[in-house]
Amino acid sequence: MQVHSFLDRDTETYTHVLADVEQQLCAMIDPVLNFDAKSGRTSTSSVDEVIEFVRERGWALKYIIETHAHADHLSAAIHVKESLGGQLVIGQHITEVQKIFKQIFNFDTSFRTDASQFDILTDDGQTLALGSITITAMYVPGHTRADMAYMASDNEKTVVFVGDTLFAPDVGTARCDFPGGDAKTLYRSIQKLLALPEDTVMYLCHDYPRESRQHCPTTTVAAQKLENIHVKDSINEAEFVQMRERRDATLDMPRLIIPAVQVNIDAGNFPEPEDNGTRYLKVPINALGE
Fold first, then answer.
1. Which of 8, 9, 31, 32 lies closest to 18, judged by CA?
2. 178: exposed, middle or buried (C-beta count within 10 Å: 0-12, 13-18, 19+)?
3. CATH homologous superfamily for the domain 2-259
4. Cα–Cα distance for residue pair 14/73, rounded to 1 Å
5. pLDDT digits (tens, 9 = 90+) for 12-31
6. At 222, phi and psi to the nearest 5?
7. CA–CA distance from 7 to each of 142, 179, 251 (Å)?
8. Which sequence spans correspond to the domains of the chain?
9. What tens digit of pLDDT does each residue of 160-208 get?
């Protein structure tokens, strides 16, 4: 098993490539589409680096895995699929998130809330085969209702892609104030991850380091239990919920949440062009945040 991580510096998001090198198969986790909010222009510069990496090695892309419907970057899943093929994977509870945001954005009846935009919907404990690697879905709601972590195991090791549930120990944990989020639920989801063997490597979706260190795509279960500033072993559920809710009340909405959510719940698709040939996204007024 190999894992290669690529940082999109604008959103501080990691896209990971998980590979069975012997069988030349791979999966891509959380690919990023570049989006300039000032101009409304998109670019594939970030993900094209990842696509070229896969092509150079001659690997076949089997899965494009989204850990959840992101609020901080737009998914490049459609571009990846058009370039390399592969099946688009997300947790089955994405239907709940689709229904929540369909109301917020007042999408018309043509917007599907059955997750049929995706190819594979995973449930807790469901497995996917990637050559000699077994990928197991772990349902970890709290940040949103649909978050999944994905544990990958072969004969040599086990790693886990945690999405936005956990960050590096000095950064902490995901916010829970988006529609459908819940701090108590997040705490319990994190305990599932911390119950894994202590030497399990965790691959992060984001890293937001202070100036004193470089970005890093990984941590371990042991490091999280010992050092996570929000949820280490000495912090109980009540303390975590109090901290998380107080902290969330002070946070601004992510700068890309409005374009990101409406694109990502539709599997990375933009709305159909209008009669002038231009695609448009909606901006709900006074519907998010306070």
1. 31
2. buried
3. Ribonuclease Z/Hydroxyacylglutathione hydrolase-like (3.60.15.10)
4. 11
5. 999 999 999 999 999 999 99
6. -60, -45
7. 25, 27, 24
8. 2-259
9. 999 999 999 999 999 999 999 999 999 999 999 999 999 999 999 999 9
